Amino acid sequence: MTIGGRRVWESWALAGFCLGLLHAGTATADTKAFVGARIFDGSGKAVIEKGTIVVQDGKIAAIGPSSKVKPPKGAQTIDVSSKTITPGLINAHGHVSDVEGKRTGASEESIARQLSLFARYGVTTVFSLGGEEEPAFKLRDAQATPSLNRARIFVAGPVIVAKTPEAPSSMRPTSAVCAFLSTISIWTTPRTCCAQAPISWRTACGISPSTTNSSPC
User: Does residue 132 contact residue 157 with C-beta atoms inside 8 Å?
Assistant: First the structure.
């Protein structure tokens, strides 16, 4: 099962558990019921042609056919008839800092604008594999809220760039870099391995060249 598939399964499993607790009770302060949508849950089950999703405090509390799932008393009811609802998409390799070609650096405003654009296309999570600037980290730290109106972002930190081909040989890897190299030594191709980690780095980390598909690095 993929990471995305496991997360989808966990989300809907939680929704099913909460459904048994919800029944037709009284709504909490922030409860919304989306009624009448065509619902595709990504689990492989049949599409619900006319369904209801109950959201409490920003989390799915119940989901199912509208004939079985009723909005709790006091909930805000939102008619989504003729609409289709799916789990949010996950961008497993994206970038959001200074991607407009202006070369002016990133700001919280510009990154939030990019994340809002992702959300409008149905992408609710962006994993950046490097190159993000400080504002992206601030937005990551502020995203644990049900009222979030943009995609979430998870960052990998700055890209390490050498000015000359010889420079990496004089650089010493940190413990975090060693941990990362240990994880990629199992699956990475020889070409990628050599591009990512010079032999001096791998030696300093105690990683044997023989563990990288017979790669010379």
Answer: yes
For the chain, the structural domain boundaries read: 3-85, 89-154, 167-211
Average pLDDT over the chain, rounded to whole?
Answer: 76
Residue 96 is predicted with a pLDDT of 87
Taking the C-alpha atoms of residue 16 and residue 7, their distance in angstroms, rounded to an integer, is: 14
Please give the CATH number for the structural domain made up of 3-85: 2.30.40.10
Contact (Cβ atoms closer than 8 angstroms) between residue 33 and residue 75: yes
| CA distance to 169, 183, 185, per residue, from 179 (Å) | 19, 7, 10
Q: How many residues does the chain have?
A: 217
Query: Which pLDDT does position 116 carry in this prediction?
Result: 94
Quote the CA–CA distance of 54 and 58 in Å, as a whole number: 10
Which 8-state DSSP code applies to residue 14? H
The pTM (predicted TM-score) of the whole model is 0.59
pLDDT tens for 63-85 read 999 999 999 999 999 999 999 99
Cα(87)–Cα(5) distance, rounded to whole angstroms?
11
Tell me which of 3.30.70.360, 3.30.110.90, 3.20.20.140, 3.30.70.3450 is the CATH number of domain 89-154: 3.30.110.90
- Tell me the range of 153-162, 175-184, 193-202 where mean pLDDT is highest: 153-162
138/215 Cα distance (integer angstroms):
39
Euclidean distance between CA atoms 17 and 64, whole angstroms: 12
User: What is the percent of the chain with per-residue pLDDT over 90, rounded to a whole number?
Assistant: 39
Residues paired with residue 196 on neighbouring β-strands, in sequence order = none
